[in-house]
Amino acid sequence: MMRYFSYLSSKEEQAIFFLSPKPICVNDRETMEYALGAALYMPGTRLTVAKDIIDGKLNGLMTMVLCLEDAIGDSEVAKAEKLLVCQLQELAQAVERQELAAEAVPLIFIRIREASQMQRVCEALDNALPFLTGFIFPKFQPSNAQAYLETLSDLNKKLGQPLYGMPILESREMIYRENRWQNLTTVKSLLGDYRRLILNIRIGATDFSGLFGLRRNPDLTIYDIAPIRDCIADIVNIFCRPEDPYVVSGPVWEFYSSERVLKPQLRQTPFTDSLGQAGGRLRSNMVCRYIDGLIHEVLLDKANGLVGKTIIHPTHIKPVQSLCVVTHEEYSDALNILQGNSDERGVMASSYANKMNEIKPHTRWAKNILIKSRIYGVFNEHRNFTCLLDADTF
Fold first, then answer.
1. What CATH number does the domain located at 28-325 have?
2. Which residue from 17, 19, 100, 232 could staple onto 94, CB 3.0 to 4.6 Å apart?
3. Is the pTM of this model over 0.85?
4. Distance of alpha carbon 389 from alpha carbon 326, whole angstroms
């Protein structure tokens, strides 16, 4: 089974983690929906997908999306389907020859154009089918939802292995204000009968922005773009309600190099306190690659209840996944809240002596923290995300 940060040595793991990440079972949907981390998008026409995995060039990657939709040209669809199948078959052969450990293959999803592609791709994959985790449904809305969901359900019944679905909300029907609320609630209702097959609700911020002729620059986050921010708020409001919650993932960060206008957004102390002079150099390298903007946006994703993030470059893997790790303070607070959940008191001071923990309002947060602690681990006290970053990556 797969496990986060398995590339670390035992000594490194002990130095970084108070609680190490636990293995992830693909059949456990309730864990899987929190476990996708940084999902790296690649066009379905990419020729080196299998080779990059076999050669270890995507160190730490847990989730990959091969795109048959906007990432390829309209004339490339048939070619991309064949290439994609070849890449997964190459991975299967490498595992069979013991050139690659099965747990080193990331969770692979295919972003399709239409429901019929699911059946076609599954048939073509043949013995490589076990290396497919599921499908992503683009521009998901009431008019196409049933076709995607019924086809996915039929495949699960036919194939006898779990194949998950992840709808992307990114069309005008899902963001135009006059119809948004109705369409979001309709989509959630349609998903209800297929809940066991749905891992995440994903947000297509690039498509949403394109509808208004907008594109954020790397000094800003998606939350600075008002129409997109408002739509994200409504998606969270509808899909993250306690009576029927879904996991919603963070939208894509598009940048890996650019000219800077505003001041860097990373303080020096988290780096230098943890890593000394090497931490200062690491921070400088990350600032040059605009990783500070990515980190800022991930922190805002987390503050708004989003889990994981879509990425487009391998240098984004470790920053996103290091920020998924639960801090020792978060873990301590979560345990105190859940262990103190009784009729005897309603509030207590944090063991870190810097905040109040209210038992009833914070119980759901605490339960989510414990789920994430099993998947991503818990940092040792006085350790933080910088410990999992590698200066050579940036």
1. 3.20.20.60
2. 100
3. yes
4. 15
